[in-house]
Amino acid sequence: MGFVLHMNDTPNLALPYILPAQAQKHVTHNEAIRAIDGLMQLSVASRTLTAPPESPANGDRYILAAAATGGWTGHDGEVAAYQDGAWAFYVPKEGWRAWCAAEGALLVYRAGAWSPLSSGDGDLPDAFDNLTHAGINTTADATNRLSLKSPASLFDNEGAGHQQKINKHASGDTASVLYQTNYSGRAEMGLTGDDDFHFKVSPNGSTWFEAMKIDRNTGRVSFPTLGGPREVLAANRTYYVRSDGADTNTGLANTSGGAFKTLQKAINAACALDFSLYSVTIRLADGTYTPGKFSVPTNGKIIIDGNATTPANVVVSGSTPIEVAAACDVTIQNFEAQGSSYALRTAAPGAALTIGVGMRCTGSGTAISVNKLSSVSSNGGSLLISGNKPSWLIAVENCSVQLFSMTITFSGTPAWSNVGISFAIGAAIYMWNVTMSGAATGSRYYGTTNAVLHSSGAGSASTYFPGDVNGITDKGAQQL
Prior knowledge:
The protein has three domains: 25-127, no CATH class; 171-227, no CATH class; 228-479, Pectate Lyase C-like, CATH 2.160.20. The protein is 6% helix and 37% strand. It contains three helices and 41 strands. The chain is rod-shaped.
């Protein structure tokens, strides 16, 4: 017995019509009743058999598996119903549904095959693809296309792990989890506006505070609201500064697209680091730059380096080109500091400035000013001083100046409008094996209030220190 549509059959279930003047109308009627009995409330025992069972019960129904044999040959995928001692076959149509007792699953016929619609342990069916929205115990909308209202929700495993994915289109978009109180945001975590991982909180849903951020490139954790922790160096680092750079760059490449534009930006980047066992070098390319000031303490050494071949090609110019105003260890070499107030200045307890080779102090300001328990030193460095100035060295307030094996050249016979070296209030200046060349005019030095200028016996004070007027000391100060 088959299930084939004829012109005298109904269009969906192919039930035969009773025709006018038809003989044995009961036969046609019974055939239609039998088809309805086989297909209404369709429930099959199985869909895995390929051959008829040996002793089927009247009314048993099956969905035939592929490569069916025996009395089922040629009916793969059809519904077979055992009716009145014979098998009747019904060809399914798109969208038919059948309950499969063996699987405990509701099946749907789609695209020429049967697949689970829903079950306690079945897969999400293709029949649920491309829904516009779904609401469970609530109403979904155009934005919240999947909505759930329940005391809890469970995303379970299938015998191993389970991964939940939130995907965004582009880096500038947001992929996050938002926590709300009465539909007003209070906390958010995720990729909010970039590809770093952010943690934010809000008291009212409109004002947000970023508590923590994890950098996507390094894994470094930072705390934007409170600041810190510092990046810990694992190797020496170099920051590059070029006149064609940009302070929005990283400073880590010696290119226009990688280098900083200003010395101050490089100093700020260095001071934000935890140096651990390492140091930071700031390399200045040829050009003229605005001053750099150290305002926060560091725990490592910073080297500012210019052009070793032609130091005059690198100029830092301004009121005070280099100022160390915090407990920092700074070495400078191979560039020109052109200052209208001071060329080099230390002005905080613990501030330490080391003068390396190839340094030039020009401009109308004092070359070196040392204050407030800070220090300036050199061991084998070289310094050129040019231009008329109030002084070339000022040391006050218990500071320390230690110059060893250093060469100091006075170019162009600078004139001291105040005094060449001024030392006061417990300052200690110690020079050993320092070679000074060139001439200057003005008073050589003035010392007062228990300060000391020690030249290690390097000749007469009246000729060793540049100037044309002998220096003097008072109030316990000494020149040795």
